[in-house]
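Supplementary Note 3. Input sequence used for the single-chain structure prediction.
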Amino acid sequence: MSEAVIRTVTSPPGLLASLDPLLREWLPRQRWFAGKGRPVTGFSLVAATELLPADSRLGLHHVLVRAHQRHAPAGGAAQEPGDCYQLLIGTREALPPRLAPALIGHVTEGPAAGHTAYDALYDTRPAEVLLEALRTRARIGGLRFERAPDDDAVRAGLVPRLTTAEQSNSSVVYGDTFILKVLRRIVPGVNPDLELPLALAREGCPRVPAPAGWIAADLAGRSWVLGVLQPYLQGATDGWELALRELAKGEDFVAEARALGRATAEVHTALARALPTVTLGHAQVRQLAEGMTGRLEEAARAVPLLRPYAPALRTAFTALADLAAEGTTWTAQRVHGDLHLGQCLRSPDGEWSLIDFEGEPAKPLAERRLPQPAVRDVAGMLRSFDYAAHSAEVRVPGWADSCRAAYCTGYAEAAGHDPRTDPVLLRAYETDKAVYEVLYEARHRPDWLEVPLAAVRRLSVPEPA
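The predicted structure, written as discrete structure tokens, is reproduced below.
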């Protein structure tokens, strides 16, 4: 077992000030930046740690920075607290052509004056520094590089490469052996993207890759999770790509959907064993239904096409509250929180795995960690089948319906109960998800609006009991 390398260095003063004008232009252009549409008005430094010296041929700085923006409420412009972002900033005297996509800008003052700043995750050497720190369980400033207990599989010499698929975070693959997910928009506290896979590993659940290591920081008396290292599932295909491939060939997806349903149920069962569950009674379900109703009303105000269906959709939530008032209760547990085809990987031997347990990044961390009915994940996957069917170049009639049925059947085989046997709860969660999709598509992808609207039309006519 290697000893930790402990260093107590921080980045030199003036680093953020010298980078400020460059970051104002560069940060809003990144796919993972959450404050699109509003200019950055300034930065405040949370922490900066020097991993390689700024005045060397290759400098590397780990920076946690809060980006401040303004919004314009009714009373006038106001300063927002700002989201905190994790940046790994490299500096070189000159940037080679292969790193052109990583360019942040040319630094003219401060400790890195005369150098070019860039996103270091694109570069081999800085990525190697992170893996070596994890391998040696290093402590550098306030950063902690941890390895899973009794896990000595992390070895030196693995060649890194940055992936391009993710939007809300960044990932580096090391030699087809590990993948390091670097969280970009971060908040202090226990992150479910590490918490839940660790809990599932303790339960021996094979459906989720067990963390091999993680990066954390201890700042101002609080802990921050910054990244998670997991085994890389070589040759695996994500469910979204696989579904579109089968659709393009005119093949059905029934067997895969059924297997994916079994995998989902196995994860839910393991989570219920590993972490506490709670019972939702009348008061809790009424609050849940009120939240769903509020989201429906907000969406209907913003999207006129939704308004004719709003009264019928509202019955999905009132029916749930009415059942609770009659004494029905439901079990809530920890769930994935943002489950769809793109969060599932199928290995070459046909086994499904679930990944990315961060939940919906836009929601507060405390809300993402709340126990919820497992059917929330089921509803998310059912909606994903609709989206896949719509995305196909050639439409296959009944494809989504067949997948939805097969997924629920597979879920029932592993869980011992079929989500369709609780139609009121399933309809409420699927309606809530479709309403969210209507609002999202109207704001960001109007060409896709018909996909959730088709679900809205279906859900506004409840199936017979």
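Confidence is low (pLDDT under 50) at residues 73-77. The first helix runs from residue 15 to 26.
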